[in-house]
Amino acid sequence: MLQRPKYNNSDPDVVEFFGECMNSRKNGRTPLANEIYEQMVAERDREPEGEAKKSPSKIVDESLSQISLSSTFLLNIGVPRPSKTGQSSSTAAQERMQAQFEAALQAEREELQTQQAALEENQNLLRQTQEEVRGMTTRFEETNALLRAVLKLQKD
To answer: Taking a C-beta distance cutoff of 8 angstroms, is the pair 17, 77 a contact?
Structure first.
């Protein structure tokens, strides 16, 4: 990889180098390149729970392979691609994604249960209101019949 004075004549971090390569002085990064770079930085800075920390080259390789399996960025800058035998981090990532999915699914289920309870409550209120209206209609009809009878008596 290139060694530059700004890196104190040592190899730069591959993630930072990716960000620098994708950054144009005139236009900055494209939205896609910026999103990928931000994901790489977040993954690099993340403290793994119970797993080995990923190397910057592994992070770059995994991030770019999501877009294209034939990415040559690492090879072009002289960094060998990490071996694919270390699938434990991939498995851990899959497990993490599965856990996130299950948590989101559980939250959706709880929201659905809350909405169903509210729906049942509203249906009960509707039934009560309908019964009250029926009762009022019956009393109205009875009162109307009594008034007709009174008016008929007064007429006679």
So the answer is: yes
- Could you tell me the end-to-end alpha-carbon distance of the chain, in angstroms, rounded to an integer? 116
Say how far apart CA 40 and CA 73 lie, in whole Å: 14
pLDDT tens digits for range 91-145: 777 888 888 999 999 999 999 999 999 999 999 999 999 999 999 999 999 999 9
- Could you tell me which residue, 107 or 67, shows the higher pLDDT? 107
* Contact yes or no for 12/77 (Cβ under 8 A): no
Structure tokens at 146: 């009594």
Q: Domain coordinates of the chain in residue numbers? A: 1-86, 106-156
* CA distances in angstroms from 102 to 47, 91, 110, 112, 116, listed in the order given: 22, 16, 12, 15, 21
State how far the Cα of 89 lies from the Cα of 48, in Å rounded to an integer. 10
How many residues does the structure list for the chain? 156
E strands present in the chain? none
- Asked if pLDDT for residue 149 goes beyond 80, the answer is yes
Say which DSSP state 55 is in.
P
